[in-house]
Amino acid sequence: MAFMSGRGGNKMYSFDIVRPTSVADAVSALGQEDAQPLSGGQTLIPTLKQRLAMPSVLVSLSAIEDLKGVSSDGGVLTVGGGTTHATVAAEAGAYPALAALASQIGDPAVRNRGTIGGSLANNDPSACYPAAALGTGATIVTNTREIAADDYFQGMFTTALDENEIVTAVKFPIPEKAAYIKFQQPASRFALVGVFVSKGADGVRVAVTGASEDGVFRWSEAEEALSGDFSASAVDGLSAPSGDGMISDLHGSGAYRASLVKTLTKRAVAKANG
Question: Does the chain have fewer CB atoms within 10 Å around its N or its C terminus?
């Protein structure tokens, strides 16, 4: 199926869209020259409009039913890579903190189109799902392997994914307690800063999104303090992370974001404790 995109004159360009119905067919289609995967399209479509990418083939993953759905078994919540944010919000009841996080992403239009796999593959430094994955110790499953969240996120818009590798599912170990608090940038609804805190069998994890130029990260000092005392007061004695390396823009300085990390961590812990 061929399409034209643009706003007239020589700015218009053509590309093909293919809609495979299996992961194997999608991988095969991505082997074509200048092919690019299309999941929910919430990042890629604006990128195409700005001519920051001009693929000759878009491989839509929306018709692959095996990539969709939420299930829970043995203390692990599994979410298909093609599952929309709205579906996670509605069906991840076994992991309330994750369902709540999904319900805060964007607006209804974004939640009904955007997918968890697309978000994690893009790894926007202010996206919410990276904080949930890193803050839970999730496993990102692809068509070829499984990648621990600690190894998956490798910097702003950078992941461990190889070329043509597709996120097929995400496995979240369901913790004893967890919560996500986001200070929302009102125009984009991305996180100016977001903190995901969890306490589980493997200990306490604190993951921060929206703050660092390197993308999502774990605040190890808070994890150590909370491992001994999982209460908001345990964070009081900590210094906020350094503002060096924090995002600084018209919405907030690096120092302001660093201060928010500590404040939101305390609020997340209080929320997790109910």
Answer: C
